[in-house]
Give the backbone structure.
Amino acid sequence: MASWPETTSLAALGVLTGLAMLWVVRRFSDQAAIRHARHRLWASLYEFRLFADEPALIWRAQKQLLYWNGRYLAHMLRPALVMLLPMIVLLVQLDAVYGRRPLRAGESAIVTVQLREDVDVAALAPVLEAPPGIAIETPPVRMVTERQVCWRVGAGSEVSGPLRVRLGSASVDKRIVAGNSLRYTCGRRVASWLDQIWLACESPLPAGPVEWIDIAYPPADLRVAGINFHWLVWFFLISLATAFLLRKRFRVTL
C-alpha cells in the first residue's frame, strides 16, 4: 500500500504539471479563436433545444456542431504537440518511481534476457551474477523459440546494484533495487534507440547479442481515501483538476 509520501508527492507533481499545461496552452494557442469556436459550439447546442421541431434546422445545427468541434480541436493541436514529447519523457520517469516498487525482503522476481535473432540460444552458457543481498534462486531457463533466458532472483535485504549477465565474452548489466522505501525502479533496459523513447529510464544497452533485460518488479499500489488508483489516473486527475480550476486565474480558455 502506498504511503502518504507517495500520494502527496505525486499529487504535487500533478499540480505542477497542470500549471505547465496552462502555460503551454496560453503561450502556443490562439486563445481568441478557441473562445470563438467554443461560443459557436454552445450556440449549435442551443439550436437543438430551440428548433427541436424543425428537422432542417436540427440537421444544420448538427453540421455546425461537427464543424466547430473540428475547429476547436485544430486550435488545440499545436499546444498538444508542444506538450507531447516532454509529457512522454515525464511519464516514463514517473512510472519508474510510482508504477513499480522495489522488491521487499523475501520477495522474488523473474529476470528475462531477450536475445537477437542471430544468437543460438541453445548453444549459450549464460551466467547471471548478482550483487550482495540478491540471491539467484534458479539456474538459467532457456526458451529457444522465444530467444529468451530467464532466472528467478530473490531479495534478502535492501540493495541497489547491478545484475550482470555473461554470455561468453559479452556481458551486460541491469540495475536491480530492493527495499521498502520509494525508489527509482526501472523494469527494462533496452538496446534499441527507438525503444528508448518509451523506456528511457536507463541508458541503452551496448551493441551486442542482447535486445533487452527485464526485471518483473511488483506493481506499486496507490490508495487514496480507501480507493485503489493506478498512479497514472491519480496523476491526471490532479493535473486536469488543477488546469480546470485555475484556468480563469491564468486567463486561459480550454
In short: The CA atoms of residues 238 and 247 lie 14 Å apart. The mean pLDDT is 89.
